[in-house]
Structure formats: C-alpha cells, structure tokens
Design brief:
The chain is mainly α. The chain has 2 domains: 181 residues, Orthogonal Bundle (Cytochrome Bc1 Complex, Chain D, domain 2); 177 residues, Orthogonal Bundle (Cytochrome Bc1 Complex, Chain D, domain 2). It is 38% helix and 1% strand. The chain has 16 helices and 2 strands. Strands 1-2 form a two-stranded antiparallel ribbon. Helix 3 runs antiparallel to helix 7, helix 3 packs across helix 8 and helix 10 crosses helix 16. It is globular and about 60 Å long.
Amino acid sequence: MCRQVLILLCVLTLSLHAEEAEIATARRIALPAAPHRYAHVALPGYVRAAAEKFDNTPETNPITDAGAALGRVLFYDRTLSGNGRVSCASCHRQELAFTDGRRFSTGFDGRQVTRNSMSLVNLRYHPRGRFFWDERAATLEEQVLMPIENEIEMGHSLPALVKQLQQDPIYPPLFQAAFDSPTVSQERISRALAQFLRSIVSFTSRYDQERDQVKSVYDEFPGFTEQENLGKAMFLGRGGCAVCHLMQPDAKDRVRAIEYIAERELQPVDESLRCRQSAFFLVEAPVVNGVDGEVNESDRGVGAVTDDKKQNGAFKVSSLRNIELTGPFMHDGRFATVDRVLEHYNWSVRPHPNLDPRLSLIAAHGLALPEREKVALTVFLKTLTHHRLLKDERFSDPFVRENSDQ
C-alpha cells in the first residue's frame, strides 16, 4: 500500500513538473524580424536644441534598437514579480500614457503602494536625471531595478530573477542581440529597461504640430481654436503655469517672475522672464506646491532622502504632457481631475513653511481666474495629448496572451 502511494505521489509530481514546463515553454512573444526603431527619434525642429541640453542618457548606455526591444519584453513580463502576477506595465499602462488611473497602485500580493504612479513618457528629458517622487534614484538605470525588489510592488529577488531569466528560452537570444552575449545579469536587465523607457518619447501632439509652425510659443497657433489659443495665453501668462512648467527662471529672476504673476499680464515684456524652452512641460527641480499647510511627517518627500529640512514636503513634478489621461494627480493622487488641480492653484495653495517662492503670492491672494479662462486652460492642456503614443506597437505588450491571461 505504501509503495502504491509513493508511486502515485511520484506520478503526480512528475505530472506537475511537466505542466509547469509546458506553461514555461508555452510563453510566446511576437517581435518583428528586424527590431523596431528606437535609437533614432525624429523630433520637431523647435524641440531639438532643448532636447540635446536636457537629455539624461548616459554615454555608457545609449539606446539601441535591440536593447530597447529587450527592455520592452522585460517591461511587460510578469516573471519580474515574485509570484508572476504583475509586470512593470501593470502600474504603467500604455493606453493611459503609462500611468494606471488609480490613486495608489496595487502590488504583486494585493497591497497598495503609498504614492501615485507617475507617467513614464519623456523620462529621457528630465534634466536632473533623478527619479521617483522623492528622487531617491540617482539614475534611470538605478530606478528600474528598485520596484522589482520592493516588498509591496513586485516582491522578487534580483539574483533569483537573473537565474530565472537565464533558464527561460525567450531571453538568451534577446540578450545576445542586445549585448553580444546570452548571459543575463542585473546590469544588463537595468540597461535594457532604461533604454526602453528612454525611448518612450512624446512630441507629436496637436500642440507640437502647431508649435513647430511658429517662431515663438507666444505667437497665435494658426490651427488652434480661439478657445485653445486663449488657454495657451492663460498658461503662458496670468495663469502662472509657465513660470514653473516652462520658464524655469534663474534664481536672480525669481522675484521678477513672482511679480509677473502678480501683474496678471498675458505675456512677460521682459525677455529674461520668457520661457527657457517650450517642449517638456516639467519643473526641473522638486517643489513644495502648497497641497499641505505643514510638513507631513509620514511622507516628507525629498527631505526624507536628503535629510534637509528645507526640502521637507518637496516632490518631483510630472510632465504635463498627456495630462488628459494621467490622473489622479499629485504624489498621493489626491486630486481626481485636472479641474481639481486648477482649482487648487486658483484658490487653495496653502502657506507651507517650504512653499516654493513662485507660489507665495498665489497662496496669499489666489489666481482668481474666471470660469471662462479656467475652461480655456483645460482645453489647451488637452492639446498636449499624444494619441498615437497610446497605440504605438513599439511600446505595446509583445507577449501573446490567451484571453484569460490579459
């Protein structure tokens, strides 16, 4: 009887291993015979000079077609999580401009993270080259590995993952193509993922098409509606948005930039206060933007990383590109809509002890934009949506999945 039970257990064990092997070998990817083009991106003329200045791509990890193709597969592979349930793409969905639409993302075991999922578009052009809301990652190459070992996000071990991928028939040929060697390593995983993320570039929105036809961003865009041009004027002028998101004035210009907001002019007469660039719609350094009136000790942002009290409450700022799709907003996802964000800056900026000085007058008096101008500003922001990006095959899931595995 014992012998029969033992034989039965052996048969069941062998059967289970056979099923696991079949599942592993059944994983299929659909990649073109020749890799998609990732290495060379055609940029609008107005972007090129600023792009060269802002690009954080290191000389040691240039984007290659084969490297980014490998990164694409890794990005969508649930094997990178401890239980095989989530991938990078679980919290960064292409159709939502690589966010996930939730206030807090859900990790591999069902627990929620404590910060909102940032968009991955145009990471290449964050000039400081630091990542996460608190900028704790010094480079993108460093950042891409952290979620894999995070106990809530993906819950895996990098040494175990390296062994796992080395034994997966999908990967050695991809590593061979990318790095002239089939050997999987943490460094190569990092480099491939970073190459893929830097290749996700967005410069073909309606805004880009119009901006490339005029000499200055302050010129009226010929293809914009009257309302869209009004919204652009609000963004550049008395809405005050460009002072942070485009202008990035030097320290010596900050007082004048604040005065410019207070004067409510449509555009600055002083050339030194005009936009430094009109392409990226991001804020170069982390800021305290007045969503809280005091330091939140449970999440001090950059201050917790640098141990600098003056940076308590400061967070990295996402690009405004594709903002129509990337809510909810702020580091903790507290604002569900763009309208709510605008209302915050219109009336609700709070006098935090480390508040960015560019917002000090707004905190004291509000912007007081009338409804017509707020609506126009919202309409303008929608022109920053890059619709083709949302379905671009270069950035889509390469795995062939059954309907039950979507």
